[in-house]
Amino acid sequence: MQSVAAFTDTYLPTVNGVTYTIQTWRERWQQRGGRMDVVFPKDDEYTPEPGEYAVRSLPFPFYEGMRVGVPRVPDAVEDADLVHAHTPFGLGLAGLRLARRRDLPFVATYHTPTGEYAEYLSSVDVIERGVERTAERYERWFFDRADAVIVPSDDAKRRLVDEVGVDAEIVVLSNGIDTEQFAPADGDAFRQRYGLGDGPLVGYTGRHGYEKHLDELVHAAKDLDVTLVLGGDGPARDELERLTTDLGVDARFLGFLDREELPAFYSALDVFGFP
Q1: Is this prediction's pTM over 0.90?
Q2: What mean pLDDT is predicted for residues 28-51?
Q3: Which of 72, 73, 105, 266 is the most buried (most CB within 10 A)?
Q4: Of 137, 172, 207, at which residue does a domain stop?
């Protein structure tokens, strides 16, 4: 089996979809006899395990809790057979540099449209649109240098082709679901543990970022006889809490949930909301 060097600006202790995806792919690759090293931004709250290499990082000034790795290639991953970038930024550039220097296949996964973060930089529409256009030009430059680009859905592929203008080979590959873990669980026990009652529950779990448009979920729940349950955290949480109060929405903010709790969380819901 080939050895893979994965480069990402999002990893533990940050908990989100990108982190889960990388962990799952790494576990499955190792189970099949392969090796996948992960290069990620150093965070004092997380101690790397074997095969994980933390590089010096800086806080991202516009997104609380996020760090950006300095584009460095650890010596331990120099012997990789393939480079996989999960970010187009600092550490993705380090991965691209390694692939070019050693003439290795370079694969990049498109997790999130970079332009969605424009609103973190400015609330002025004209500036926001300018940032979005610049982000798309950069995405086109980066992903066109990949031998293959992985996207999680047909919609993501359409965006890269039609809006960003990427010419590289694009492969649609779902992030997948671990059906061994995500099987029906005791939702009633979860309701009881968090005091959610017996009424209808509409829920979401994930990053509370502005780009997630969770305010739309709050507005949708305004005229319904439901309890809105939000797991996770992020920079938009305070505003979401104020919005639920202003609109009179019965909402519960649970904060970060352990991964082991997620099957019970989903089982407790009547509707999962994903704007």
Answers
A1: no
A2: 95
A3: 73
A4: 172
